[in-house]
Amino acid sequence: MQKPKILFLTGAGISAESGLQTFRDSQDGLWDNYKIEDVCTTEAWNNNPALVLDFYNQRRKQCHDAKPNLAHELIAKLEEHYEVVVVTQNVDNLHERAGSTKVIHLHGELMKSRSTANPKLLYNRDGDVLIGDLCEQNSQLRPHIVFFGEGLDQSIHDAAIKEAVTCAVFVVVGTSLKVSPANALPYYVPFASQMVVIDPLAHEMDIDDERSIYYLSEKATDGMQQLYEVLSKL
To answer: What is the pLDDT of residue 172?
Structure first.
C-alpha cells in the first residue's frame, strides 16, 4: 500500500534554531559585517568574486559546525509512516544530515560548487572554494547558490510543483512565504489536501481564504513536536 505523501516547504526559521544566521536576522543590510548586495548578487560576483567566495566559505564553515535540530529530525522520522518530500529555501544540508532522503533545494546548495561556464557541472565541496579553482572545462568555480538577480533552475522549480500537486499534506515550516516563487507553491496543492503552517508569524499569513489551513504560531521545533504527535498516530 502506497504511503500518503507529506510535502514540507521549509525556510530560514528552521535553520535559525541550529544557529545559522538568516537574512531576517541581518541588521541594516549587513550579514557578519558584509553588505548583502556585495556578496549575494550577480553584480557582486562580477565585481569581486574573491569576496563572494570568502563570504560563502565562511557560511560553509558555519554549516559544518551547526547540527540538525529537533524539527529537522522529526521531519526525517516521519519517513517511517509517510512518503516525505522536503522542498527547502535553505542552502544548508541540515535536512540531509538529519536523515531526510528526498530534499529539493530551490536556492542552491552550500556544499556544492559549480562551473561559471556550464551550470550543469556540479561538484561536492566541503572545504573552501578559491580563485583559481577550475572546473573540468577550465572555468572558475563559483558557489552553487542562486544569487539575487538570478532565476531559479526551471527543472528544480518544476520538480517542486510536481510534488505539490500530488501531496496529501502540505506543511510550511519556518518561512513567512514572502519570497517568490516559493510562496506560490501552496497554490499547487490539491484543494482536498490538509495544509499546516508553522511559523511565529503564522497568524499574520493569509494564503487562501477558501481552504482549510491549520496555523501554528510556533518556532519550528515546538510546532513540529506538536505536528509529529498528531501525524505519527494517524
So the answer is: 96
Identify whether the C-beta of residue 20 lies closer than 8 Å to the C-beta of residue 72: no
CA 29 distance to own-chain centroid? 21
In the chain the first and final C-alpha atoms are separated, in Å, by 15
Which grid coordinates are listed for 4?
Answer: 500518503
Given 72, 95, 105, 107, the catalytic residue: 107
Q: pLDDT tens digit string along 116-147?
A: 999 999 999 999 999 999 999 999 999 999 99
Q: Mind giving me the DSSP string for 168-227?
A: SEEEEES--S-STTGGGGGGGS-TTSEEEEESTTGGG--S-TTS-EEEE-S-HHHHHHHH
Q: Cα separation of 22 and 72, whole Å?
A: 17
Told to judge if 144 belongs to the known catalytic residues of this protein, a careful annotator would answer no
Determine the 3-state secondary structure of 9 from DSSP.
strand
